[in-house]
Amino acid sequence: MDDSNDVTKCWLSPDKLEQLERTAGEDGWTREVAVQLMGRCGLRASEVSYPSDSNLRYSDDGDIWLFEVQGKNTKGGAKKTRDAWMPDDVADDIHKFSRERGLSPSEPWVDASTPSVRRWVKEAAHAIAEQTGEQRWQSVSSHDLRRSWATYHLVERQVDVRTMMSIGGWSDYSAVEPYLAEPTESRIGEAMQV
């Protein structure tokens, strides 16, 4: 958590993200799917209502699930379309969700406004704060899910920046740079040992 500026920034570990997903899901599977799309696929809250079954495809070239997203253009102007990455277990959940709901291929998985998606995250985070007494949950926002996703992949998994820019929808390095952690002496030592 970083509350040194006007906006409090939170980073969720994979375990904490899973806890948020489960808690959101207590108020409906759609909410859990929305949290998964932000926290495990890196979508912005404003992008969650776009994808549908017709946008999801399996790439034989990469042995991965990709889905089309129409979202923010970080250089300004009209929305930009990109392929986002989806983990296998999220794709399994999406397939089950879509079948159970009887969604047509063009129906979005999450049919909700951006303010509703943001509110769902806040409600789930507040519920966890109430259940656990951990007041830091009160500060968690929908953007923290994307921040956690980006930081986890860039820092912990060391995914290259160009790949993250492509699947995360950042047009240039300056847009993704805030998600990169400052190197510590131990991290420098690990990286530079021969």
TrEMBL record:
SUPFAM superfamilies for this protein: DNA breaking-rejoining enzymes
- Extract the PROSITE patterns matched here: TYR_RECOMBINASE
Q: Which InterPro entries match?
A: DNA_brk_join_enz, Integrase-like_cat_sf, Integrase_catalytic
Which Pfam families does this chain map to?
Phage_integrase
Membrane-traversing stretches: none
Give start and end of each Tyr recombinase domain: 7-193
Alphabetized, the UniProt keywords read: DNA recombination
Q: Extract one GO BP annotation from the record.
A: DNA recombination
Q: Which GO terms describe its molecular function?
A: DNA binding
Organism of origin is Natranaeroarchaeum aerophilus
What protein name does the entry list? Site-specific integrase
